[in-house]
Amino acid sequence: MSPRLLATVALLPLLLAALPAAAQEAATPDATLLDEVVVTASRIETPRSAIAATVEIIDAEAIVQQTALAASAVDTVAALAPSFSPTRQKLSGFGETLRGRSPLYLVDGVPQSTPLRDDSRDGYTIDPFFIDRVEVIFGSNAIQGIGATGGVVNYVTARKPSEAEGLTGRMMAQVTTDDELQGDGVGAKIAAIGGRDFGAFDLTLGAAFETRGAYYDADGSRVGFDGAQGEVQDSQAVSLLARGGWDLGGDRRLEGWVNRFDLEGDGDYVTVAGDRATGVPTTAVRGAAPGRQPSNAVTSAALSYTDRDLFGGVLRAQVFAHDYQGVFGGGSFPDFQDPRIAPVGTLFDQSANNSEKLGFKIDWQGQVPGLTGLKALVGLDGLRDRTYQELVLTGRNWVPETAYESLSPFLQLNQSALAGRLSLSAGVRHESAKLKVDDFQTLYAYGPQTVAGGEPGFEETLFNVGAAFEVTPALLVYGSFAQGFTMPDVGRVLRGINRPNQDVDTFLNVEPVVSDNTEVGVEYRGARVELSAAVFRSEAERGSLLNRLPSGIFEVQRQATRIDGLELKGLWRATDALTLGGSYAALDGQSDSDGDGDLDRDLNGANISPDRLLLWGEYETGPIALRLQAQTYLARDFDGEPAANGFEGYTVLDAVARYEAGFGTVSLGVQNLLDEQYISYFSDTQGPTDNLRYFAGRGRTATVTLTRSF
């Protein structure tokens, strides 16, 4: 570890020294017990105290607070999860990581990612208004399958309505504007969700519509538009949710849900290049953006069956479907040129990433007969992902149609001992996967080359082991080792083949990216004080790094990587009305750039987040509630990177005030309260000569929200 990270790790003894004194609270009736929350993302119904990993539960109240700042679902996670990267404030989450690696996004357990051609749009697939809580499991794991090398982010939507309350739900109206009340900077949102239990059957329906205006930075200039990757500013989004359940008698239930999310840019602006040398950010002026506008169109659906009394355990079976199209902005890019269609340099085109998933999950959880305290989870997952990237204006395929098929049996064991105070866990998952690609031809710019198809595959067995011990009912210590995996971005590799006589079976290395996560942590939850700390190391012998080429396009490089990190969190309920808290995350990451076995180069800003300090305070009395939160992203230099890619760091202060009136709840949220001018982390650390993507962050922005429950 670096001296900086070692210094922060040295804070751990101070935290541990404080725990014995605080632990006296555990005996009081008001202590917050660690087994109150069941984390569904872990797939095994077990209390928090039995999970040997760092877990963050973002509850409904915290989601409402962040939504009052007009935050998206991914913005909410980024604001509250200590080692999550600062968001780019763009439609693309390219470069946004959890513990320096990609997280797997789920909606009620349904994967939202596109690993075969990873376009990093999976954070924008559902409106946060429909989310009841967010479960974040930090660190690599394979319990949910492909993609969780950084962890799991599971968006849990609204649950079954209460039978006794009749029709219940919420309505919301929201208006957002920059502090100078620019006409084109105004956004608005309306949303409603309601449900009713009719006895054996229940139904919930929701709809949300949002229009966003242009963003302005603290200097009063429009924030530049990322014409290629896509924007959330100057856009419209529609989200629909339907959920129905049927109680079949006894402990059996059938439930189905559908989520539809559409976001599309309005195309009212064109980008004006900034100047990195003089510190002038990219901006935008009124004008018609050419071609189809960047968009996300996502449909997720699932049908689940649960029997809570089958052979003394719980059977869960789910079939799901996920259909996604992400349209990117166009241009006369060199890769798109073809003299058979138009003179070189004149052909305008744009791409769309398409992914269709069908899958199933089936598992049974119960006590193992004859072995007291031993609980087993045994199951089988299946997935078929069909992905291709087309050029939508000329009908060519940039990435050929590629199918990923896998079957994955798994077994997870949890042994409870010492009257439930000690939990030992171990698990294994076997991935048997195959990639199917037919013969295809690359774009003209790469030859064109005719590539023979094939069916390369892999077999990978992944393990986890852990232990969690309740020192007291409120004090938990844990340690674990877990492996996660994902596919390298094979779409980027296939579309860039520029040598003749290539065969997919021999050319394409589909060896998965396997990451090993080792961590040790401690958590304390008392009546007045909550503290936690975790130290972790994440290693991958053949990691997948994003490397920016001179053309501005990123390629995938396979290099050994290692990430060391520390996460600290705490809160103090100073009075019944006032709560203070904060978190700190420090990460160091290196890669083996020359393949000699030595880690010799820092991971750059596209592959790891900056160190971050979050401080917040909440005050609530009667109908009034206030929250103040300060995010400080610390400056950082990267060994082996251009000096211009160093990160200067910045601090952003946000505030939310809420008033419970007779007609509903009124809130005022202000992002960037002090109107800090800054360059976003990704822009500041990438492309030292790219003046088209030198984006400032959003300046002071106010949001007024009216919510009414019924």
TrEMBL record:
Signal peptide: 1-23
One GO BP: siderophore transmembrane transport
InterPro entries xref list: Beta-barrel_TonB, Beta-barrel_TonB_sf, Plug_dom, Plug_dom_sf, TonB-dep_rcpt-like
PROSITE patterns: TONB_DEPENDENT_REC_3
Pfam families the record matches: Plug, TonB_dep_Rec_b-barrel
Cellular component GO terms held in the UniProt record: cell outer membrane
GO molecular function, one term: siderophore uptake transmembrane transporter activity
Primary subcellular site in the record, as a coarse category: membrane
Localization (cell): Cell outer membrane
Similarity field: Belongs to the TonB-dependent receptor family.
Identification of the protein by name: Iron complex outermembrane receptor protein
Organism in which the protein naturally occurs: Brevundimonas aurantiaca
